[in-house]
Amino acid sequence: MMKTFYFLKHYALGILLVGLPVGVQAQRVLSLDSCRAMALRNNKQLSVARMKQDVAANTRKAARTKYLPKVDVIGGYELMSKEISLLNDDQKTALNHLGTTVSTKVGSKMPETLTGLAQQGLITPQQAQAIGQIANQYVGPMAEALNGVGSEIRQAFRTNNRNMMGASVFVRQPLYMGGAITAANKIAELTEQLSAESTKGTIQNTLYNIDQTYWLVVSLHQKNRLANSFLQLVQKLDSDVNKMIREGVATKADGLKVSVKVNEAEMAVTQADDGLTLAKMLLCQQCGLPINSQITLEDEDKTELAAITDDVQGDIHTALTNRHELEMLERAVDISKESTRLIRAAYLPQIALTGGYLITNPNVYNGFEKKFSGVWNIGVMVRVPVWSWQEGAYKIRASKTATSIANMELAEASEMIELQVNQSQFKVKEANKKYSMTLKNVEKADENLRCANLGFAEGVMTATDVMEAQTAWLQAQTQKIDAEIDLRLTQVGLKKALGILQ
Q1: pTM of the predicted model as reported, rounded to 2 decimal places
Q2: Can you count the helices (H) and strands (E) in the chain?
Q3: For residue range 430-467, what is the model confidence (pLDDT) as tens digits?
Q4: Which residues contact 377 (CB under 8 A, 6 or more apart)?
């Protein structure tokens, strides 16, 4: 029997030790800083903003390459159904029969020429006859030889370009583009700065939202605890009234009034539980946790939240220096100015240096020889816009107007931020006054409830008086919680207005 008990005791202890870490891990305790860190790490909009910043950085790097020379390599092959011919068909035929044509013309003129020479007495008739016989012996071989020469000439003029191959290396170096490259690089740099400011704004919005939700959960937890405390008060009153009814010193009407109050308190507890659950789900979603995670906040059970608040220091100058919205609008103004320069550059002269190497087969530089051969080239290309019907002037005017609009938006934003800072400072002062007043109201409500309970116990006060005192106590405690949370949130709002929330 003792061995069995010993085994069961150690078995139960083992189960407890195994189950203990699971319970500890299931309930996560989160501080405001940990919630902020998780939100910054897991927020999808912040991830998108960082990706946009990366896009802007790569765009800036791409714009830098516009200053450098560009090198292109082009190659190709083409098969043609016919080759290009430098000679027409009649010329080809004439070259093929060059010897025959020459011998025919020479043979027809030879007798007449020799007869003329004989008549002039330059040669004798016997010599003319001998020369004619000798010429006739060499006409045939000479015709064949000249026909061969003509055929070779015809073949030499053949391009043989049915199979054409070629490749080219082309280099372009901008020398002067009217300032377009400089303006494009400046726009890329400003866009990157604009993206960085947008990321800062997203970070501040994320921190602001997480602070709002965090203190909302703390507020609902405090109100949930307060609702349970109030329920206990009215339940005790309900129990006391029922005892008095049984003793005949209270009426059923008093009991019904208290019962209604108990039902209202129970409903308030249910609503507080539901609100707290939904608020924790929202906080989990913003932190990147599963929405059904079991979490406990570090500040949930603190009784004095306002005692650890920070004193926010800052003025309008701080806001105008740190607000990302103003930085973004200033970058937008600068981008608009550079856009004007970019438009103007399109209507200014542009100069570029070009160079390259071209290789072809057939070799067009050596009688269409069937070999690869190439040639170097270098040149300067100039583009001068002459007339565009004032298109550039109209575009430049439109761009300058856009810059004026951006400047007006910047000025208006500065005014609105100044107003927002003043409003936030007033809200902080109002929250401090409200908190001081709620502390006094809580003291009075506690004393009023104590007197009501004492008077009810002594029989000099009715249940209605006690319920009124309890309601006043609940209202005072609720106002105290709201004032504490409002003091926190107004300080967060002032930091955001000043641009120093981090």
Answers
A1: 0.76
A2: 12, 6
A3: 999 999 999 999 999 999 999 998 988 887 888 888 88
A4: 354, 355, 356, 357, 358
